């Protein structure tokens, strides 16, 4: 089975209309290298490929200016965060050769952006490469939700193989990847933190409880959370503030970004998946991630809640409009008092109630029930 990522390929092509350097950022094994190689095959130009995990390629890049300057066409540098001193060389090359283009991939977003933003300012564009989205898997939402979007998990021949792959991914992340991300803790403590976050999935982040349970001060916990967010492992969904005089929640909500990874952290299996008591919060996180991808609005996505109990799972800004989303794992959705309060207080253009399945129907003049499989319809609205 082949998953076509034409939308992402188009973004790469369009990026070169603006910048000479295009950066693909995303978690390890999310498909960045495959996407880069697909783009390489599709273009009618000279292509040169360097993998910073390949010792032979690394030796060629020890003198990057001598190696890269004579090359024409497209130069692809994979896992560039392993060779951060390249950014200064790329600036020199871009400024002196307008016909040369670079496609770079990296797995540590914030570090990579920090390293490149100053030296390549005005010369580079960034694109987040997530695991497979619902739009890319032909709305096969049930499998995507259960096993997540990492290619080797989604495309596995059986649920057992998928579960085994995700278990190994978690193990490798805890034993190897955290060292390169700056988490100065043992794999055991990092694993405890990640599993605690999984149990807090969809809830207001409680820094005090995390700090107390881990025996780490809150400043350190906050730094670790920022690192995990920068590595695309979690989402810290920020609260939306209004001026309506209500006592609003001002702490973020936390989500494990990939639902398949979440399910293994919570010990979900294919046999108990539908009966797990955490299935509602899991579905909420899955929808929040998919909607944020559809609108490409990670920086403009929020939730809203008051201490009086009114809340809304997701708010996105689309131009001058605010659109609200409430997620319900039910086949009998209805309009609630909380929805009406949120719609009025936030002055929403429209509110969508997202449920499992494919059903679409109006609940009210400004409230529509939308099956998760049809969320792509929102893009054209």
From TrEMBL:
Q: Which Gene3D superfamilies match?
A: P-loop containing nucleotide triphosphate hydrolases (3.40.50.300)
Q: Which Pfam families match?
A: AAA_14, DUF4143
Question: What InterPro entries does its record include?
Answer: AAA+_ATPase (IPR003593), AAA_14 (IPR041682), DUF4143 (IPR025420), P-loop_NTPase (IPR027417)
Q: Where are the transmembrane segments?
A: none
Residue ranges constituting the AAA+ ATPase domain according to the UniProt record: 18-118
Q: Report the SUPFAM superfamilies cross-referenced here.
A: P-loop containing nucleoside triphosphate hydrolases
The UniProt entry, under PANTHER family, shows:
CONSERVED PROTEIN, DUF4143 DOMAIN-CONTAINING PROTEIN
Q: What is this protein called?
A: AAA+ ATPase domain-containing protein
């Amino acid at each position: 089975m082949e998953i076509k990522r034409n939308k992402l390929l188009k973004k790469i092509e369009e990026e070169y209309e603006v910048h000479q350097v295009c950066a693909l950022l995303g978690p390890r094994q999310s498909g960045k290298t495959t996407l880069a190689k697909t783009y390489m095959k599709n273009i009618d130009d000279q292509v040169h490929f360097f993998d910073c995990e390949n010792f032979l390629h690394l030796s060629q890049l020890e003198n990057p200016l001598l190696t890269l300057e004579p090359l024409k066409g497209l130069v692809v540098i994979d896992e560039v965060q392993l060779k951060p001193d390249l950014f200064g060389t790329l600036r020199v090359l871009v400024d002196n050769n307008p016909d040369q283009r670079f496609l770079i991939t990296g797995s540590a977003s914030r570090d990579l952006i920090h390293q490149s933003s100053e030296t390549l300012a005005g010369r580079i564009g960034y694109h987040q490469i997530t695991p497979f989205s619902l739009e890319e898997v032909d709305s096969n939402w049930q499998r995507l939700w259960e096993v997540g979007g990492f290619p080797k998990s989604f495309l596995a021949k059986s649920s057992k193989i998928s579960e085994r792959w995700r278990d190994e991914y978690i193990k490798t992340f805890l034993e190897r990847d955290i060292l390169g991300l700056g988490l100065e803790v043992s794999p055991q403590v990092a694993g405890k933190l990640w599993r605690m976050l999984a149990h807090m999935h969809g809830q207001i982040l409680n820094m005090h409880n995390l700090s107390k349970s881990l025996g780490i001060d809150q400043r350190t916990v906050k730094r670790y959370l920022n690192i995990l967010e920068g590595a695309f492992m979690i989402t810290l969904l920020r609260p939306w503030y209004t001026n309506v005089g209500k006592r609003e929640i001002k702490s973020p909500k936390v989500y494990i970004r990939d639902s398949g990874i979440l399910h293994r952290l919570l010990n979900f299996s294919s046999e108990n998946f539908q009966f797990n008591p955490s299935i509602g919060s899991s579905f909420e996180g899955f929808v929040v991630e998919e909607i944020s991808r559809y609108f490409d609005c990670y920086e403009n996505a929020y939730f809203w809640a008051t201490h009086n109990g009114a809340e809304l799972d997701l708010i996105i800004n689309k131009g001058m409009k605010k659109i609200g989303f409430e997620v319900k794992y039910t086949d009998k959705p209805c309009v609630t008092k909380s929805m009406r309060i949120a719609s009025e207080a936030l002055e929403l253009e429209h509110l969508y109630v997202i449920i499992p399945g494919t059903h679409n129907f109006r609940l009210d003049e400004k409230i529509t029930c939308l099956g998760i499989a049809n969320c792509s319809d929102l893009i054209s609205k």
